[in-house]
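= Paired protein data =
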Amino acid sequence: MGAPLSDTERLARLRLARSDNIGPVTFRDLLQHCGSAVAAIDALPDLAARGGTKRAVKIATAADAEAELSKLTRLDARLLVWGDGDYPARLAAIDPPPPVIAVMGSAELLARPSIAIVGSRNASAAGRRIAGDMAKELGTEGFVVVSGLARGIDTAAHRAALATGTAAVLAGGLDIVYPDENRELQALIADGGTLVSEMPPGTSPQARHFPRRNRLISGLSLAVIVVEAALRSGSLITARFALEQGRDVFAVPGSPLDPRAGGSNRLIKDGAPLVETAEDVIAALATPTGGRWREPGPSTYDGPGSDLAVSREIDDGDRAALLAALGPTPMPLDEILRQSGVSVPVARAVLLELELAGRLHRDPGNRVSLV
């Protein structure tokens, strides 16, 4: 991704990531528009004003960013920023990548081939044994086992892979233990594995944080194995993210009488390869049609300025047409473009302004809605 980031740009990217109404999509688009986080921070008030904000946009200060970095230092953790050479290649390849992640423990594990194992919190004894056996076998074959440190399947997978390498992705800050029953396990992973979080230190996990955690679990991995999952579960969200990111998804079958297997069985019906052992997974990954052994290349942006310039020249008719096509119901972006008749650069610029103003919500599947 070019030359290493300067300290000033790294700090600005952290500030940008912690500012109001800026998620991974908006972060990437701001870099596309402005060319750097330093320039993006300067442009934020004007962009948000054109989006119709009624209040000043809240931008994280340099002092806020420095305080977060100091907390990470005290935790013996460090920040990895998208654009730097030590940022994990697999995460850099997803669209869009998380702007920053905090890592405690051996960050080098994130460069090794990794496979995620996820499943039910209320797991069966058989499910926990399968997860543990798979994790142990994958570890002996050189894979890092990634999971979310939840009770049940996640816990079994992490414990079985402690000796060979495991990475736990947290929904809260690195200094927050959740669930409390995994306090010892979290400490063991921090000592001999890797803890990863997109959240600042001190952040308690909330419901909205778990999908972001699940997106990192799949993004760090070459493939995702679902051992047990109900029809409506976070594990299926992880599987969906994996497919969107071009990862393989495997599922372990379960009894049709067990609701904990409903989601994993549905994945198999929908085409996910059925696996029972780590050997099945490795064999499937090694086939020409099933495997993605080569590491993905990093995602990039096209260069500074083009859409930012467009956003200053949008006529009232195009802006009105796009706003008329938007509504409270999430709609695919392609459909918004078709109905409004505006160009892609114009749409991207207006949507960015609306999001910075807090008037746009982005939904899975590249859908957007007005708040």
User: Anything to note?
Assistant: The longest helix spans residues 125-140. The radius of gyration is 21 Å. The longest strand covers residues 100-105.
